[in-house]
Write a structure and sequence with these properties.
Layout: H1 2-21, E1 26-39, H2 63-79, E2 91-97, H3 100-107, E3 117-121, E4 131-137, E5 141-149, E6 151-155, E7 171-175, E8 180-181, E9 186-193, E10 196-204, H4 212-236, E11 242-247, H5 255-260, E12 263-264, E13 275-276, H6 279-284, E14 290-292, E15 295-297, E16 300-305, E17 317-323, E18 356-363
Helix pairs in contact: 2-3
């Protein structure tokens, strides 16, 4: 009996040791952002400046080219994420989108159809008719609220007869007059990622048209609006998990991002209500999402609140970030060799931006 008891104790001890040695398993979800660069259909919209992207326009945008563009984008989106490609991004922020219709066409592509994406989209007042949107996998993310928050900018010329009323979160910038400069709204979404509340802001900040310095105030206004949205969410819940993503048309080191939004480059600098920008370190390493005159910069960024930086992975938290710049997305020859492979008159490319992504992980339950 003593021998049997001793053997039994050994078996129990070894079993417990093996269990303790088992590696932890995690649920991993990818959150991505991609500037789709001129995702237009071929139909002329009389209310926007989309004439260039029609069969008779400067780009000679035919149905065949449009369908190839959808195919190209779907390939990219389906491959962002884990190396084994076990799942496409659960959440995808997008920019330069003409309307909801092009998104409907996109999620029906064979490479994306299995993931059953839902769409959150509003028409923005941008004169070209380009908007931001969110695609989400219905299996994992359940949206509960969403709204488009206008960024109001006024510049030069005369006063419009009447402007719509300003909402609490709107930012109004006036420069040498009060003619409104129309730009993209900021899209705010609240929902539950496998039961955990998450807030997302999808952005496409004002461009550098007119010069980086002259137009900086517009992007600073966008950063201010972003900061106010985050502050309002944290006022309701100090532990709110917020992810703001987009084409910011500014670098992590520019005033709009670093000072106005207050995005920190190091985790150690992030306080209770601060935000962390993992793409600042990548810029220091010479990486980029967009190239101009052989100089790389990171305009596409995903920035998170400190509440997503906790070391306890019993809930979803930030793991790491990356730039998706696979070889098939890169121009292989010519003047722009090494740049993102964008559309030209002779070739339907992908985008002039590389996508960016972060991983959220949680211990498997």
């Amino acid at each position: 009996m003593k021998v049997i008891s001793f053997q039994l104790c050994c078996v129990v001890f070894l079993s417990l040791t093996i269990l303790r040695a088992q590696p932890k398993k995690y649920s991993i979800h990818t959150v991505a952002f991609y500037n789709f660069e001129n995702l237009f259909d071929t139909t002329d919209d009389v209310n926007t400046n989309d004439d260039e992207w029609t069969p008779k326009g400067a780009q000679h945008w035919t149905i065949e080219k449009y369908e190839q563009k959808l195919k190209n984008l779907s390939r990219v989106l389906s491959e962002i994420g884990m190396p084994d490609n076990s799942n496409a991004p659960v959440l995808i922020g997008g920019a330069e989108i003409e309307n909801r219709g092009v998104l409907e066409d996109l999620i029906k592509q064979p490479k994306l159809l299995p993931f059953d994406y839902g769409i959150i989209h509003f028409d923005s007042p941008d004169k070209r008719g380009i908007d931001v949107a969110l695609l989400y996998q219905r299996k994992y993310f359940k949206p509960t609220a969403y709204s488009n928050i206008p960024l109001r900018i006024y510049h030069n010329k005369v006063t419009p007869k009447e402007e719509e009323p300003q909402q609490d979160n709107d930012i109004e910038i006036k420069m040498a007059g009060n003619h409104r400069v129309f730009t993209r709204d900021q899209l705010l979404i609240t929902g539950f990622l496998e039961g955990e509340e998450l807030h997302l802001i999808v952005n496409h900040w004002p461009s550098r048209s007119g010069g980086e310095k002259a137009s900086s105030i517009f992007r600073e206004a966008a950063g201010n609006l972003n900061r106010r949205i985050i502050d309002s969410l944290q006022k309701i819940n100090p532990s709110a998990k917020v992810i703001t993503m987009g084409d910011l048309n500014d670098s992590p080191t520019n005033k709009s991002v670093k000072t106005v939004l207050g995005a920190k480059a190091k985790k150690s600098e992030v306080g209770e209500f601060s935000v962390f920008n993992p793409f600042a370190a990548m810029l220091d390493k010479g990486l980029g999402t967009i190239a101009f005159r052989d100089s790389w910069d990171i305009f596409d960024q995903i920035i998170i609140t400190g509440s997503l930086l906790k070391a306890d992975f019993s809930t979803f938290n930030f793991w790491k970030a990356g730039i998706f710049n696979k070889p098939f997305l890169v121009q292989r020859s010519g003047q722009y060799k090494g740049y993102p492979l964008r559309h030209s008159l002779t070739e339907v490319g992908f985008s002039d931006h590389f996508p960016v992504y972060i991983y959220l992980i949680r211990e498997a339950k």
